[in-house]
Design brief:
Order of helices and strands: HHHEHHEHHHEHEH
Radius of gyration: 19 Å
Mean pLDDT: 96
Bound molecules: flavin mononucleotide
Number of helices: 10
Number of strands: 4
Shape: globular
Distance between the termini: 22 Å
CATH superfamily: NADH Oxidase
CATH topology: NADH Oxidase
Strand order of the largest sheet: 1-2-4-3
Length: about 200
């Protein structure tokens, strides 16, 4: 049996949905001028919030950069190769984590609010768990963008300290990824880079 046959026989989703999310979807740097609407942004976040996180802590914070003024402030902190595509993208999300996420324990975990005390005096672990779980949510974010029929272009090539100073000075918000979002333009993609196969990366004990 080929790997492809195994996958298709195992899918619980329609193959077209899996194509949209995984197999046909590509990282995108070239978008049409079509704006990303407020409804689309809300639809994306309605999906993102349902992805699992430790303690249900949901540390991801999202800043949508849409205006020309905010975009230029952001682009100034990007690696050279990321500047032009971000300038031309209809929308860019700054993904950050809240290092004081534990303060919301009674809201996100009302069945065990006392667990907040585990983190009160442990800033290092708060940063670690906040960063890890927000990065998990970033994966959900990319898939949510694809779920509403849009394309995502994630980037880590930027000066995070500079962006944090520019947009989040004096706060508990720490950026870790940028995502350009929009409708993919014709010819947006070149060759797909190779992926590891099952046997390259999987060990079963
Ligand atoms: C966390 C993350 C950071 C990335 N940073 C950059 C970046 O700074 N600049 C860039 O051009 N591409 C960046 N990429 C894009 C990757 O190179 C791309 O997703 C990967 O090659 C797979 O491409 P494909 O989805 O078209 O197969 C980033 C992707 C991820 C997920």
């Amino acid at each position: 049996m080929t790997a492809e046959l195994t996958v298709d026989e195992t899918l619980a989703l329609e193959p077209a949905a899996v194509d949209l999310l995984f197999r046909q979807a590509r990282t995108t740097s070239k978008f049409t001028d079509e704006p990303v609407t407020e409804e689309q942004r809300r639809a994306i976040m309605e999906l993102v919030k349902m992805g699992p996180t430790a303690f249900n802590n949901q540390p991801l914070r999202v800043t949508f950069v849409q205006s020309d003024e905010a975009r230029e402030r952001l682009v100034a902190h990007l690696a050279g190769g990321n500047q032009e595509k971000t300038r031309k993208a209809p929308l860019t999300a700054i993904l950050s984590y809240d290092s004081e996420w534990h303060e919301h324990f009674p809201t996100f975990n009302p069945v065990a609010p006392q667990m907040k005390s585990m983190f009160d005096d442990d800033a290092e672990n708060r940063h670690k768990m906040g960063n890890n779980n927000a990065n998990l949510q970033a994966g959900y974010f990319i898939m949510a963008v694809r779920s509403v029929g849009l394309a995502a272009g994630p980037m880590s090539g930027y000066d995070a300290a500079g962006v944090d100073e520019e947009f989040f000075a004096g706060s508990n918000t720490h950026s870790f990824m940028l995502v350009n979002i929009g409708r993919a333009a014709e010819g947006a993609w070149g060759e797909r880079l190779p992926r590891f196969d099952y046997d390259d990366v999987v060990t079963t004990l």
